Amino acid sequence: MLKKGLATTIVLSLVAVFLLAAGCGTPTGKSTSSSGSGSGKSFVIGVANGYIGNDWRTQMIADVQQVAKTYEEKGVISKLIVENANNDVTQQISQIQNMINSGVNAIMIDPVSATALVPAIQKAQKAGILVIPFDGVVNNPKVTNITTDQYSWAKGGAQWLADQLHGKGNIILMDGLAGVPAENIRAQAEQDVFSKYPGIHVLQKVFGGWAEATAEQKMTSLIATYPNIDGIYTQDGMGMGIVQAYIAAHKKPPLMTGDVTVGFFKYWTEHQSSGFHSYVESNPPGIGATALEFTVNMLQGKKLKSSSIQANPVDTSQTNTVLVKSPLTVTDTNLQQVWNSTMKGKPSSYSLDAWLTPSQVDAYFQ
Amino acid sequence: MRTPFNLNQRATRIFRSPAMIGWVLFLIGLVANAIVQPTLFKLSVINSNLGLAAPLIMVAIGQTAVVLAGGIDLSVGSIVTLTNVLVVSLYSFHHTGFWLAAIFGVAAGMAVGVVNGFIISVVRIPALLVTFAMMSIVNGVALAILPQPGGQIPADIYQIYGSTVGGLPFPFLLIVFGVLLWMIFRYRKIGRYLIAVGGADWSSRANGIPVTKVRFQSYILSATFASLAGLFLTSEVSSGDPLIGASYALNSLAAVVLGGTALAGGRGSVSGSAGGALFLILVQNIVYFANVPSYYQTLVSGLIVVIGLATTGVLYVRSGKLHLTNGR
Amino acid sequence: MLTIEGLRKEYGAVVALQGASLTLVPGTIHALLGANGSGKSTLVKMLGGVVRPTKGTIWVDEQRLEVGSPAHAIHKGIAVSYQETSLVPSMSVADNVLLGIEPTGKAGYVAQRSLRERAAEILDQLGLNIPPDVPVGELPTNIQHLLEIGKALVKRPKYMVLDEATAALRREEVKRLFSIVCSLRDEGVAILFVSHRFDEVYAICDRATVLRNGAVVGTRSLSNTSREELIQDMIGRRISLEPVQQKTGTSFKKQAVCLKARSLTNAELRGVDLEVSAGEIVGIGGLQGQGQTALLRALIGATTVRGDLETDGHQGLFRNPSHAAGNGVRFISGDRGREGVFGQRSIYENIVIGRIATFPLWKRASQRGENQAARALVEQLKIVHHSLFQEVRGLSGGNQQKVLFARTLASKPNVVILDDPTKGVDVSTRMEIHRLLRNLAGEGVGLLIASSDDEELAEVCDRVLIMYEGQIVRELTGDLQPSHITKASIEGAQSEKGKGAETRADSL
Amino acid sequence: MTFTERAKQWLEQSSRNSLGIAVGVAVLLTAVGGAFNRGFVSPSNLLNLLAISSLLGLAAAGQTLVVLSGGEGIDLSIGAVISLSAVLTSQISNGQNGLLFPAVVVTLVVGALLGLVNGLGIYLAQVPPLIMTLGMSSVIEGIVLVYTQGQPKGQAPPFLATLGTGQVLGIPWLIIVWAVFTLIIWYVLKHMVYGRLLFLVGDNRSAGRMSGVPIAKLVVGTYALSGFFSACTGILFLGYTNTTYLNIGDVYILPSVAAVVVGGTALSGGRGGYIGTVVGAILLTVLDSLLTTMHMGEATRGIINGVVLLVLLSIYTRQPKDA
Predict the structure, then answer these.
(1) What three-state secondary structure class fits C331?
(2) β-strand partners of C311
(3) How far is CA C26 from CA A110, C179, C505, in A?
(4) DSSP bridge pairs for D167
(5) Residue D1 domain-assigned?
(6) CA distance C338 to chain B (A)
(7) Tens digits of per-residue pLDDT, A94-143?
(8) Alpha-carbon torsion D252, D257, D262, D265, what sign?
(9) Confidence of residue D184 (pLDDT cuts 50, 70, 90)
(10) How does residue C247 score in pLDDT terms, banded at 50, 70 and 90?
(11) What was the pLDDT predicted at C358?
(12) By CB distance 3.0 to 4.6 Å, which of C260, C276, D230, D271 could disulfide with D266?
């Protein structure tokens, strides 16, 4: 009896979930065709986001949705479809294909892989769909990548650290995740800067996985192993982990590049007076919103200036990338102002955010 | 609880075929998908769905072979990756001919299977642990071969992969190829012995079946299918990526279980696993076309899969356990 | 000619077979007799290559048989029908019958048609009308056993071994089997027939070898040997074969009934009524596989059953063994390895679980006094050990069984239900266990013991119930003799089958 | 128990036991680290290694119970439960000590309930544990996303933050907390009816059933406990990282299994214990730290991790040839 009831319950709940899923909205295919033909200027845009499991990405999506809303109110965008893949290439390909099959006008992709999506993208292009990879880049000459200039971003921090150290000292490099394109670009920038200073000795280069807890653990080991760390160069999402490791070790953190989270800014503002110095160049989640601005402009038929398009940082043989400079750099001088204006009161995982305004984006177009 | 003969006898008989569970789930998924996506049956749509399904089905076939024989293979995902990076880097960076590179790639995958099989069946260490450790090792090797995504394969290869041949989607032909390949084994002695060894170890021994050898071969089979899947996936994505296969180990197992194959071994079928794999692919479509809001997607797809699993489990329990009164 | 020379098998301290020898002559049917646990099955498994002998050789047609290789045994023309069957439950009838010897066609594919044809041929020969595509696990026991025989037949063996092949079969099935076996004999096949049933043995066999306690007592030609002589060989002492007296008034002074079951019915039981009084030992006998095990399992709620049950302070069937244990009804399984001991855990833990199994899970298991109690039990039962904390799997079978007893004693039960309590146990341990059972009854515990060992039943029981095909067909009380129980078991079979045995013998 | 009896017991266990081997390997790795870099064996680094191990050790606590319970038990959902728990505690407490208590209660109840669902799916619907917990893991990740709408709020209350990163007398609180947990789990396994039955049932489920153990309660309860312990871990993680994010627990899924098996707990169940897992967690942390110190790349690291695992497991778990 129990088993029978169980089976019925389970089958019913399966049906219920399907109905629930089906009830969430009308088929996308239909709405596309109707709205597309209605105004003639109303676009359906798909966003294939490769990963949603961290705060930076969720903020990025929230930004995209926020900007899309203003366009929806103006009737420029009829619909924004957001799909998240769990860092799984095949899942992202499937989502891109679904977008093609449901007839979107443009697909924005935060790619899981720089190369593996190329066939899916070509399929989209064959179907007349505009493809805009953003945040990460894709190695295909026919797309237009919109990405933060990772090289100059990483170089800025590295240069600041080298300057502050006056070209001398022992440093730690806390990098992200091996095997990921952005990591390789940043690593190149780090190397280019630090190799110019023979007095700077890199004690160790470790991978913190762009995750606070991992960074905290690695740093804890490093603090104990090296008593003489003069500076730390770190990338995204790990600054607070490093600081936590120092707090736990009852030591003051040395000179270090920082992180864009509220948590880090809070620490910085509170300890600035006691001699903690840092440098943060924003790698804003707003890049998604910026990319959306570009996408809308291109859908409306505008052409990019040829000077806007630069070499693909991953595969320099291709010229297909708009490198967006980081819109904001925070140092000791403007820290208080930035903190008060944008960061105070936000959840501690919130990242310092900014995206290009429509007029700033216009400057990239002919 | 269970009366021996009743009107439902015929219905139960159908449900007793383990493959049915997978296909029923697949059908439910197909109907749900067709409701939310009217264009589902367009050739190009079928083509793109099958293009993604083909590698998963291949891995699931190999996984089924191992599971039938009472084992498990967690290293299949890393084998997919290994084949991918090897083929691409040989072709792109060492100027090997594509087909030669493909042969190398598949051979390397099979070699992993040989190592697995040897350690599990001859040295006798539990399969879960061996393949778990092997996963870490092979992923490391793949990362060493190709530290970052890159390289490519000849354009015509991936164009063919996305094309139709004689009105049929090419990936469909590849799935047929995979199934035929499986049938080569299924309808030889080895195919029966896999089931026998997984179903009744002692009985198999008593009937003179070389149990150790059969176990050994099951891992080679699984690795072979996984590396062919790697080859298909390479055609789909046309490039190399050292993290590409990560999801296949657990997804293939989910497909196998959804397909009504008992993880304990001895009972199940490849066609069921194929149904389970297709179900997993369809779930993604359903979530997309049902316009599930971004933050709800993971939850909804997760719920569908868990409920699917529970359905499989309950149907399986209800289908009645086979028993031998004096059997072991 | 197949010759066995000095086969010996030791399992740890237990000697299952101590140097058995015999010869199988083509064109004869050779009976292998012996009480339960005399080593017959071990011998059979060695012939099949499944068990590797500790010592000794098997010669087949003047060549040495590779030991421990079933494939080689099959290759040399030996086919075995195992008592516990060697079927794969999930595979179909046809696939099972030809498992391991599938005909292959071109390119190594299994020739489906010829496989089905050969399977059908065998099914036909056995008079089985079943679809060849059904998984054998779904078939009834008797059919499964017929298929096990079919598997041996299909190999067209020169030497065929039938281990208790008839135990689960119906009359007409036995009849058909005998005609097949006899025609095989006429074709020059040597057959080793292992059975408990004398009339079957007399009906078809030429010679008989008797095993007792793992040793060959002797080989006799059946034409000039009486049943009495054979039984004497098996049991080892002279007995009378007078009809068993059924006493209605029990010699046992009835106390309170502590277990009472009414019309228990399920797939294997056909309405069993049963009563056990406090301090009473009730035995369940009969030929093997007549539902004894099923009855015990039904009583403790391990299988589903209809009917009614009443114990001291509880009314109704038990939901599961835990429910039964909570009400003071404890079970000791006959399958020691699978359902009895926790092999990788210590003696101590194996004993203490008896006490704590039914405690609330979140309670503290007070260890105060546990050691003393466990130690006392270990000493009381004379469990041979070097530490209370050694793993149980290192103990001999007899000592493992004693550990199970210690566990049950630690639980302070009202009723103890035992399945084959001395299976695979040496003689002295056996005696100790019997004494223990008596003591337990003396303390007012009701015991229900199923055993295939009639001597054991006679020795310890106040009352013996004989089961046949899921029913209790006889009740024996008073001065119990093993031979009486054996006889009642066989007679139970005969009374149930009418005059089956005679008819069968005549027709052959 | 007499002294000799205890000694015998200890010998009995360690002669065949993997615990000794694991301890040996951990010590050896530390020594190798020391040879490469003096700082590696400094007392402060050793304490730090221990503190880091404690996170993995806590994450592997529920895993240990589930694996011990047998029946191919494994819990791949602990990562997701840890993430959810950190998020729940963070959002509910909103960084205030006063709200910590209700936050912790809610978190623990939710964790246990999710574990219960795992257990029911595994016991009643007979879904293999590996697959059931994997599926649940994605459901729980979904719950996290929906609950936070992508942006977890709040932070660790100061009390929790002290527990996560503070020190007392030079010893990180984390180590002390871990020690307390270890003691509790040791007590549960050693002295509670539940724990003692767990080993037996894990060794032989049928025998447990026939001896009268309430298997359903025990098995389902074990998964619930695993959820509970993962929730505890999540709460402490919040203290360690101070703020939380969505995928905080992911990195512990596979290492938690590795810590359990390296600690000598058999994946087939019934053998091992939490002390082994503690050693396993330390061993893996030392190994990881050592590879970092030796400047190993990701690829080499993966290979070495796998080989170490394979070699250790070969020593522990080689199965006897049958018949």
Answers:
(1) strand
(2) C259, C314
(3) 80, 17, 23
(4) D172
(5) no
(6) 10
(7) 889 889 888 899 999 998 887 888 888 888 998 899 999 998 888 877 88
(8) positive
(9) very high
(10) very low
(11) 84
(12) D271
Q: Is the dihedral of CA A345, A346, A351, A352 positive or negative?
A: negative
Burial C207-235 (b: 16+ CB within 10 A, else e): bbbbbbbbbbbebbebeebeeeebbbbbb
Q: What is the ipTM of this complex?
A: 0.82
Let me know whether A297 and A275 are in one domain. Answer: no
Enumerate residues 6+ apart whose C-beta is below 8 A from A163.
Answer: none
A136 and A56 in a common domain: yes
Length of chain B: 328
Task: State the Cα–Cα distance between residues B217 and B198, nearest whole angstrom.
Answer: 13
- pLDDT of the residue at C493: 60
Same domain, A175 and A277: yes
Tally the C-alpha atoms within 13 A of residue C287's C-alpha that lie toward its C-beta.
Answer: 22
Contacts of A34 in chain B (CB under 8 A): none
Strand, helix or coil for residue A81: strand
Any A CB within 8 A of B157 CB:
no
Q: Chain D contacts of B318, Cβ < 8 Å?
A: none
- Does residue B130 sit at the D interface (CB-CB below 8 Å)? yes
Q: Which amino acid is at D273?
A: G
Query: What CATH number does domain B19-318 carry, 1.25.40, 2.60.40, 1.10.3470, 1.10.20?
Result: 1.10.3470
Give CA–CA dist C443/C436, Å, rounded: 11
Closest CA to C169 of C130, C212, C200, C208: C200
Q: In terms of residue numbers, what domain contains D63?
A: 15-316
According to DSSP, the residues that pair with A322 across neighbouring strands are A146, A309
Considering CB atoms only, which of B188, B189, B266 is closest to C88?
A: B266
Top-confidence residue, C287 or C17: C17
pLDDT at B16: 60
Cβ neighbours, 10 Å, residue A192: 14
DSSP assignment, residue B262?
-
Q: Is the dihedral of CA D55, D56, D57, D63 positive or negative?
A: positive
Q: How far apart are CA D239 and CA D165, in angstroms?
A: 7
> Looking at residue C461, what DSSP letter applies?
-
**Cβ contact, residue pair A217, D52, below 8 Å:** yes
D256 lies in a domain? yes
In Å, how far is A350's CA from the nearest CA of chain D? 7
Give the CATH number of the domain where residue A243 resides.
3.40.50.2300
Q: Do chains C and A touch (3 or more CB pairs under 8 A)?
A: no
Looking at residue D189, its amino acid is L
Contacts of D137 in chain B (CB under 8 A): 302
Per the CB < 8 Å rule, is C89 touching B199? yes
pLDDT beyond 60 at A33: no
φ, ψ for residue A301, nearest 5 deg: 95, 5
The answer to whether the CB of D64 falls within 8 A of the CB of D79 is no
Residues D61, D67, D71, CA angle at the centre, nearest 5°? 155
Contact D200 C350 (CB under 8 A): yes
Report d(CA C448, CA C467) in Å as an integer.
14
- Set of chain D residues whose Cβ sits within 8 Å of the Cβ of C352: 196
Q: In CATH, what number is assigned to the domain containing residue D308? A: 1.10.3470
Among A275-279, A305-309, C231-235, the range of highest mean pLDDT: A275-279
Length of chain C: 508
Structure tokens at D193: 């009816």
Question: What's the average model confidence in pLDDT over D261-285?
Answer: 89
* Selected residues 261-280 of chain D with any CB under 8 Å from a CB in chain C: 270-271
Identify all chain B residues contacting A95, using CB atoms and an 8 Å cutoff.
Answer: 284, 288
Is position D323 within any domain?
Answer: no
Q: Given pLDDT bands bounded at 50, 70 and 90, which one contains residue B76? A: very high
> Are the C-beta atoms of C344 and D270 separated by less than 8 Å?
yes
